[in-house]
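Reviewer 2 asked us to include a model.

Predict the structure of this chain.
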Amino acid sequence: MGPRLASAATLAFLAATTVPSAAAAPPASHFPGVADSAGLTGQTLVAGTVRDSAGRAAEGVEAVVLATASEDMLASMKPGDQVKMVPVGRGTTNMSGRFAIRVDPAVQIGAYVGSSGRVNFQVLVDSADGFASWSFTAHADAASAGTPADASRLSDGPTDAEIVLGGAARTQDGVAAPTAKTTCTESLQSTIGTYWDSIAETYTHTKTNVDWVYEAGSTSTLGVGYSLTGAFGSFTASGTTVTGSTATINIATDPVNVKRVHQTRFELGKYYDICWYDQGGSQSWYLAKTKRWIGGHQYYTAASYPAAANCSPYLSGDKPEIDDHKAVTWSNGYDVSAGIGIDLQSSTGFTTVAKQSWTFLASGSICGTNDYPEAGGVTVVGS
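Predicted model (structure tokens):
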């Protein structure tokens, strides 16, 4: 049975979406209708390095950025639902394997902007040296959400993407493309399960306790798994996506003398992605990525206190709030190995919707690991 469309709105959107026109002869690019970044000026959406499987710089290969299903679309998709992915920019690596992609200003991305103002993307590299996909999320300005908007209204894309090429994906030469033009789609194949992710650390000694809230709209940056076959154990970490909470968890007060790592649950989906090329043939791959936030809370005790030397003193009774703090990135904080064979990275920042509220039971200090807590210290330790 073929994939069913996510909704009538998605059907209308897909029907209206323009894809690059086919060339009379096979072009150097699979996406000739998208403007090459070399001829564009303005802000770079994403930059990074492409290497082959031996770690050597991959020179002269094309990297293409596709806009993919938004956070809202992912949350509502059922197995079999399908969304078109739209190319927004492309560029070619230099002799060091470096690339920088600016967006084609003619591309309309309004339908891909989630209610949170975020847009999900993939960088694809499909070359004689191999194939790879790398995921990331960027912010769109307020004018872009829910309206036709050009892709130049994007910010906060990464500049340090590390893409490693693997073997070529399966080619289905006998499968007809949905249109006569290059077309890429993403389908939810299955829901893998719900898994715990680390979202905060709290460390107290004898003089402080701390409250913190994971409010609706709090965001977690979660790793994405990539595979050519989709088989258990075949996934490798390849980029991240951002998912927000839709309800509030007011965590019970962490008392004195604790070192806790707090967790909440997310639902992981397995997605089948494919591009049919106008020159013939296709490339397909699988992603394991977060479908939506589920909720719940648990914690475990960390092995030790982190070293934190950037200290701010406070008096007994003071109640400082830390709401400008990027949490540490846990390389394996997203505990999904039971579903795909590896754990993935995660991080959660404290903002006005995810913050720590400290109480001093006696005069003392709160200390940050890389900076003062009020100035954005990564991990905060109370005395």
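Confidence is low (pLDDT under 50) at residues 1-27, 143-149. The two ends are 61 Å apart (CA to CA). We have added this to the supplementary material.
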